[in-house]
Amino acid sequence: MSRWPTRTGCPTRRWPTYSPNGACDRNLRAGTNVPGMRMRAGLRGITLSVVASALTLATVATAAVVVSAAPAGAVPLPVGTIVQGALAEIFSPESTPPGMNNWSCVPSAAHPYPVILVHGTVVNEALSWQALSPELVNAGYCVYGFNYGEGPASVNRVDGESDIATSAEQLATFIFYVLTATKAAQVDIVGHSQGGMMPRYAMKYLGDGPKVHMLVGLAPSNHGTTLDSSAPFLAVLHGLGLNVFNLIGCISCTQQVNGQGQSVIANLNAGGETVPGVQYVVIESRYDEVVTPYTSAFLNDPGVQNILLQDQCPLDFSEHIGIIYDPVALQDVMNALGPDDPSFQPACSFVPPGIG
Questions:
Q1: Which stretches does DSSP call E strand in 51-200?
Q2: Other CB atoms closer than 10 Å to residue 95's CB: what's the count?
C-alpha cells in the first residue's frame, strides 16, 4: 500500500478536515483506519442492541510496484456475512474490511472511479462492509472507506454520531485523499443510512459535486425518519426540553428524526434534492424499520433511480441493517456501479429479515 497522501500546509500526523477555504481544522478529531489517523473508541449499549439484533438473525508494508485492483490470477477475497461484521465491530472495531484502502490501487479503464463506502449512524466500517468491500475488489474496483462522525460519547468506533455538517467535511477531505492517491477524476460513493444521505451535504454545500460520479444509497435517510412512528412521542419530549438523542451523545440522530431538529435535512432538500452531473441510485426495502416510512429514502428529482427491493424480489425481507448484506441489494449496487442498466433484474432468493 502506498503512503497516505497529504495536503500542503496540513499536519501529517493528524487527519485534517475539509473546509470551504481549504484550511486545516486541527480542532476536530476526525479519523479513519489508516496509519496515525485513528480516534479513540469503545462500545456503547445502544450499539449492543444493534449488534444483538444482527446476530440474531492495519497496515501492510508499502508495495514495491503499483498494482490494479484484483490483478489477474489473484485469489478472490472472502465475502463476509452480517455475523462476521457484528463480531468485527465488537472484537476488532479498528479493523478494515477485506480489500479496503489499498493505497497503491490504480483504477482500471473498466472501473475508472474509485469507490468510497460510507457507513451509517452508530456503526462503523468493520460492521458494514465485510461483504461489499471484498465483492467490489474481486470485481476489479479500487475500494476505500473510513470511520467518521465521532460524537461526544463515541466508544469502540461506534461512529456516525456527530453533526452531519461536520461528518460531511470529513468525507470531503477523504474524497480529496482518494482522488490524490488514485489520480482519478471522480469517485463513486456507496453509503448506508446516514452514509447515503450525508454525502449529499458535501456535494451541495462543500463543492464536491464535480468530484462525484455516482451516489448509491442503501436505505438512506434522505428525508429523515419517523423512527417507526415513535417520532411524535420523541417530539413531545423534545418540546419539554428533553432530547433523548442528545443525552446519549448522538447529534446526527437528533438531526435525522422528524421533530427533533431536522433543519439540516430540510435545508439539504430545499431547492432540489440532487446536484447537476451526479448520478443517483437509491435502494430501499419495504421492511426498513429505521428509515420510516420507507418511501422517505427515495429522492424525488428527475433522473434518480429509486429501487424497491420487493418490486424485484417479493421474498426479500431484508430491513435496515440487513440490506448491506442482502445479496439482492448488492447485485443492484454492482449493476449501478457497472453497466447501470435500469432494466436490471437481480437473481432472486429468499432473504430473511436481519441476516441479508
A1: 67-68, 105-106, 115-118, 143-145, 187-192
A2: 17
The SS3 of residue 282 is: strand
**HSE-up of residue 329 (Cα within 13 Å, Cβ side):** 32
Contact 120, 81 (CB under 8 A): no
> Which pLDDT tens digits describe the chain residue by residue (356 residues)?
333 444 433 333 233 333 333 333 322 333 333 322 333 233 333 333 333 333 333 222 223 233 456 655 678 999 999 999 999 988 988 899 999 999 999 999 999 999 999 999 989 999 999 999 999 999 999 999 999 998 766 665 678 888 999 999 999 999 999 999 999 999 999 999 999 999 999 999 999 999 999 999 999 999 999 886 554 555 555 454 556 565 566 888 889 887 655 689 999 999 999 999 999 999 999 999 999 999 999 999 999 999 999 999 999 999 999 999 999 999 999 999 999 998 999 999 999 987 65
H or E element: which one contains 139? Answer: none
What's the CA gap between 282 and 293, in Å, rounded?
15
Single out the residue of 291, 275, 283, 295 nearest to residue 334, CA to CA: 283
